[in-house]
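Propose amino acids for all 233 sites.
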């Protein structure tokens, strides 16, 4: 999903690592556990193996949770954060937890295949061109119920809202214009994290980096250049 960004970032002198998170993409499902912490440890190990003392870390949705956790777990490794469709937790307030309890009950009594179709339709409502991509990814998860449920549990139990004040690195919060649910949490993050700034992209849906790569890349490169000199290393 990051293919529209890699050439643009490399063109300004950045070395780009774009791994598949545990149990995502081409990675295999193993007997190891799945959680935000486990994925964060994987990314930290990748940075160590690549001899990257610090990095600008970009995460989308669940990947944003991993990016936030990395900034908390190893702040010395994180030069800055780019959080797309930012969330510090799906059930971190009493009202969100109440809503999530209904969602979990509903999902327990429906098939995974039906759920993946519903999510694909909801996530691509404003960008039908991406529907095949999202449907394919979700269908792959739906074929493995253990993986699907583990990822859903990791997403819905993560909560770092009370720790946001401990993240001091420069942060860019990217949302789609008109996405009220995404913007709500991004607004809270921006208030708590004093080094955070926000940008709202027009003409795009949930997959904003694919729907409007020109504006997304422009915002990301501008942020990178404001905190470091990529050509200087």
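Proposal:
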């Amino acid at each position: 999903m990051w293919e529209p960004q890699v050439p643009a970032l490399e063109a300004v002198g950045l070395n780009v690592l774009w791994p598949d998170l545990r149990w995502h993409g081409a990675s295999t499902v193993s007997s190891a556990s799945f959680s935000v912490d486990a994925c964060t440890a994987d990314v930290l190990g990748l940075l160590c193996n690549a001899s990257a003392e610090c990095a600008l870390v970009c995460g989308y949705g669940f990947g944003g949770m991993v990016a936030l956790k990395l900034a908390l777990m190893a702040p010395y490794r994180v030069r800055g954060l780019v959080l797309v469709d930012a969330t510090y937790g799906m059930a971190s307030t009493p009202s969100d937890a109440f809503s999530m309890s209904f969602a979990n009950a509903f999902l327990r009594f429906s098939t995974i295949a039906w759920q993946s179709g519903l999510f694909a339709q909801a996530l691509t409502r404003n960008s039908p061109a991406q529907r095949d991509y999202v449907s394919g990814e979700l269908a792959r998860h739906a074929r493995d119920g253990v993986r699907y449920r583990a990822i859903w549990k990791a997403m819905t139990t993560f909560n770092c809202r009370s720790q946001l004040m401990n993240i001091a690195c420069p942060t860019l919060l990217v949302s789609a214009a008109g996405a009220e649910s995404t913007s709500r949490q991004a607004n809270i993050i921006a208030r708590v994290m004093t080094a955070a700034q926000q940008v709202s992209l027009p003409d795009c849906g949930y997959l904003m980096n694919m729907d409007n790569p020109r504006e997304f890349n422009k915002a990301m490169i501008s942020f990178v250049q404001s905190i470091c000199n990529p050509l200087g290393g």
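The first strand starts at residue 55 and ends at 60. The mean pLDDT is 87.
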